[in-house]
Amino acid sequence: MSLEQRAWKIASTEGNMLSRRAFVGVVASAAGALITGPNALADGRNVDNQRSMITEYKAKDFSEVAKGLKGISSNQLAQHIGLYEGYVKKTNAAQKGLRKLHTADKAFASTSTRDLSLRQTYSLNGMILHEYYFAGLTAERSVPAGNVADILEKEHGGVQKWFQALISLGKAARGWVVFGLNLRDGHTHFYVLDAHDMYSPLLVIPLVVLDVYEHAYMIDYGTNRGAYLDAYAQLINWSVVTARINRLEHVSTGRIWTD
Ligand SMILES: [Fe+2]
Question: How far does the centroid of ligand 1 lie from the alpha carbon of residue 196, in Å?
């Protein structure tokens, strides 16, 4: 599998908004920019092409997730989804602002681009993490099965110990607990984030994403995070986790990203 094919396979997991055609365009354009050098950016036509490649994200519809969910009320979820939709708008605004700065005829203040760049990362991560969280909830009780159960057994001492770790980290974290596949070693790990953009690991594909911000449970549970975590543990959609793993290759067979 070529690097492009592999990158596309990873990029085409949920949350990605590029079409295959657009993705190839981005790869080709990036290669072209490397060949032609920075002077290409002074060319009006190329600048227009750069602008047209901004992805305008649209909020996904998670209203169906709320139906029948036991343990998280529809009001709690609806308000949470509203926050997520705000991140989508903020991501789009930051991207547009940055592109405007980067393609301006005049030099721009570094503080402006720094501020917008940080906001872009914060909002983009906020958007993606919430999408994994909402899409990973289900009203139908499910359990780890097949290759997911095998991974939990081999790498985490079994399903029960995996849940124990999840709940413990959920109590300790300030923002998120992410259980994901590390592309460098080909194995699964837990990661804790204090904010959307704080301690986010690179080259990790999320499999289970748990939101522990107070806004995720305050309406239903007040400050009782433990009760929320117990409820969340019953709501994980293991079919979605399996689908996320099945999109990847070489799970638990060693390093798959080796530069
Ligand atoms: Fe949240």
Answer: 9
- Per-residue model confidence (pLDDT) at position 83: 97
Q: Give the pLDDT confidence of 67-124 residue by residue, as tens digits.
A: 889 899 999 999 999 999 999 999 999 999 998 888 877 777 777 788 899 999 999 9
| Residue pointed to by tokens 């920075």 | 38
Report CA(219)–ligand 1 centroid distance (Å).
13
Structure tokens at 101: 């700065």
Domain at 146-246: CATH code = 3.55.40.20
Residue 177 backbone phi and psi in degrees, to 5: -115, 125
> Where are the domain boundaries for CATH 3.55.40.20 in the chain?
146-246
Top mean pLDDT of 23-32, 71-80, 248-257 is at 71-80
Give residue 215 CA to ligand 1 midpoint distance, Å: 6
Residue with tokens 């939101």: 211
Give me ligand 1 centre to Cα 15, in Å. Answer: 16
